[in-house]
Amino acid sequence: MDLEQVKKFIELVKDTDIEELYWEKEGTKIAFKRGTVISGEEKVTPSETAGEKPPVLSSGENKKKEEKVLPIKSPMVGTFYRSLPDRPPLVMENDHVSVGEKVAVIEAMRIIKDVVANVNGRIVKILVENATPVEYGQDLFLVETETLMETDKKNNV
User: Fold this and answer.
1) 20 pairs with which residues across the strands?
2) What does the pLDDT average to over 95-107?
3) How large is the average pLDDT for residues 101-115?
4) What span, in angstroms and rounded, lies between the C-alpha atoms of 102 and 99?
5) Cys bridge to 97: 22, 27, 87, 117, which one at CB 3.0-4.6 A?
6) Domains in the chain: boundaries
7) Which phi and psi angles does 78 have, rounded to 5°?
């Protein structure tokens, strides 16, 4: 496969919602993984660039808190599970999470993918019931970031 064929392949995939792709034909292997743009602690996903915004808190909360509560999104389409069979939930509301910590799993066609935290903070809301179907990019958890938690502690809130 030459460079022009690879460029054509990239063009075909570029305008889709595909995040990862692995293709193999006659000994030729191609793997694509769409990168994420990181701004501060917030990851930008294709759905956010398309105009979707993270959910906001109730109208009684101030704007500063809205900006510091970030979602953990579904990495794929499938069935959401808060725990593995016969085990307690990986996280509960008010639990502290760290970047890269497993908070749930998504299963599709007997393939299980971990859902990991993308920020350090505290789970303030679990948005999806256990064993519920989810879409790619769907908000699963809301996390209050540590910078906000530290500010609240200083202000004795």
Assistant:
1) 33
2) 93
3) 91
4) 9
5) 117
6) 60-154
7) 165, -160
Q: Tell me the β-bridge partners of 132.
A: 80
The per-residue DSSP string of 45-68 comes to: -HHHHTT-------TTS-HHHHHH
Cβ(129)–Cβ(110) below 8 Å: no
3-state secondary structure of 35: coil
What is the model's pTM? Answer: 0.52
Looking at the chain, the whole-number percentage of residues with pLDDT higher than 70 is 61
Rounded CA separation 60/84 (Å): 36
- Residue-wise pLDDT for 47-64, tens only, equals 444 444 444 444 444 444
Taking alpha carbons only, the member of 137, 140, 119 closest to residue 67 is 119
Beta-carbon contacts of 113 under 8 Å, excluding residues fewer than 6 positions away, are 75, 76, 78, 105, 106, 107
HEC states along 64-120?
HHHHHEEEEECCCCEEEECCCCCCCCCCCCCCEECCCCEEEEEEECCEEEEEECCCC
